[in-house]
Amino acid sequence: MSETAFPDDFLWGGALAANQAEGAWQEGGKGLATVDMLPHGPHRMPIKLGLERRTALRDDEFYPSHQAIDFYHRYKEDIALMAEMGFRVFRTSIAWSRIYPNGDESAPNEAGIAFYRDLFQECRRHNIEPLVTLCHFDVPMHLVTEYGSWRSREMVTFFTRYARTCFEAFNGLVKYWLTFNEINILLHSPFSGAGLAFEEGENPEQVKYQAAHHELLASALATRIAHEVNPENQVGCMLAGGNFYPYSCKPEDVWAALEKDRENLFFIDVQARGAYPAWTARMFKEKGICVQMEPGDAEILRHTVDFVSFSYYASRCASADMNDNNSSAANVVKSLKNPWIQQSQWGWGIDPLGLRITMNMMYDRYQKPLFLVENGLGARDEPDAQGEINDDYRIGYLREHIRAMAQAIEDGIPLMGYTTWGCIDLVSASTGEMSKRYGLVYVDRDDQGGGTLARRRKKSFWWYKQVIASNGRDLG
């Protein structure tokens, strides 16, 4: 690898999300959010998919987000660990229902603003740049029950009010913002992605793409507001990334992969290019979708993002013969199993070259700086007799993906930074498990909520520290 692959100002760090880390689900005036309705166990996936409506908590279920890893009370300790690793950036999110508990209030919850101001000031004390997501898989439940969540255009008003509040309250503390986390997941996991649950007889595709239009409007308006509040603000979109490979060179498989890539990139096409792509007209017609738009919407969408951020865990495979029986259930984004790559313990393909392919594709398509804001390996970590966690498998995964990033940079791609996902163990968004661990720091907590919540450095902690100190030259 070249000595100069990573620029001197490259932002090395890690990422968490409020809904998977904070806990304190009823403290500080916080309102109930969609993630608070997601139990651990067999009902989790039907609720996430919008197939099982859930508006009240049950006494016989465990809700992992309610305490999570208690980052709300332990953030100073956790940020100190990040600083020890040398983080230059920390990606986190604001829980919408901490700022607006119901979502439709005219004035924010000052206790929520005070918490995040303290959090971002703590980052600054350690010379860590906050990278903040406004909506990371959590919508105030009141907006779901009273308005139908993002199916309602009123959500645009509520979100932009919330966004302006954040931009103004944290002006000078935060300059890097993301509007919606993995915005394309709305199409695959509608309730967890956008608070959508379907009514009998509804066309789910119509509901999803109407909600998508409202989110895209809200994102564009938030981007405009951020630039008005402070011209130094930089706003990005966020994609659940990973190219679809054709399962074979059969032309029908190539076309199927192209269609899957288009579906995946639809939101980013609009956020980065400022208009709906041409192919959507035929797709809407064939799916019986009629997106309700108002005069001026096209003009609003022209407020494009400053950079494109994305997660990358795995590439995917598609074929013309793909169906529920032959595609993997390991992820809400369905894929055929790729026989040429290894799989993680949870069945996710491990494909470092796929990261370089994805980065080249996205930069060719958008010509905007990229920011890799999630990348990591979910695995079962078992402390040894001495209490050490020797997660060499995670080090190997991260090492090869950092090498792929370096190759992409040498390909000419401007990459702003890299934040490993779940830099501290947290609740898995997909399964609700703690045993699916991503962190460089171990948290003593199990899938049923037991444990002391004590933090412990893994072997990967020390490895990543040397990576950052060497600006990616020493990968061990």
UniProtKB/TrEMBL annotation:
<keyword id="KW-0326">Glycosidase</keyword>
<dbReference type="Pfam" id="PF00232">
    <property type="entry name" value="Glyco_hydro_1"/>
</dbReference>
<dbReference type="InterPro" id="IPR018120">
    <property type="entry name" value="Glyco_hydro_1_AS"/>
</dbReference>
<dbReference type="GO" id="GO:0016052">
    <property type="term" value="P:carbohydrate catabolic process"/>
</dbReference>
<dbReference type="InterPro" id="IPR001360">
    <property type="entry name" value="Glyco_hydro_1"/>
</dbReference>
<feature type="active site" description="Nucleophile">
    <location>
        <position position="374"/>
    </location>
</feature>
<keyword id="KW-0378">Hydrolase</keyword>
<dbReference type="InterPro" id="IPR033132">
    <property type="entry name" value="GH_1_N_CS"/>
</dbReference>
<protein>
    <submittedName>
        <fullName>6-phospho-beta-glucosidase</fullName>
    </submittedName>
</protein>
<dbReference type="InterPro" id="IPR017853">
    <property type="entry name" value="GH"/>
</dbReference>
<dbReference type="GO" id="GO:0008422">
    <property type="term" value="F:beta-glucosidase activity"/>
</dbReference>
<dbReference type="GO" id="GO:0005829">
    <property type="term" value="C:cytosol"/>
</dbReference>
<comment type="similarity">
    <text>Belongs to the glycosyl hydrolase 1 family.</text>
</comment>
